[in-house]
Amino acid sequence: MSKESDNAYAQLVAGLMLSDGTVTVGETMFLTRLMARLGLDDQQHRSLLMSSGGLATISAMVALIDTERRSCLLGDLEAAASADGLKVAEEQEYIDEVALALANS
Prior knowledge:
By secondary structure, the protein is an all-alpha fold. It is built from 6 helices and no strands.
């Protein structure tokens, strides 16, 4: 897996967490575990939480993700959305946009 792919993957998950305007402790813990799994460091973790990709860049981020990693993305997004025990409408909209981008890639 390329570093660019891993960064894009983590950016999409962080974008989901930011989509409702709050990042909970559960979501932060989920992102920490994901970052460790991807081999990304603490500085990259902080950087992801400070930036929001937004819906406009979802297609661009999906395009950067390695094909074999794309199959895990929706599952990780669903898990991230549920990390705080509540999936809100903004998170579902974000997941739907990622699913559309994946279908079109």
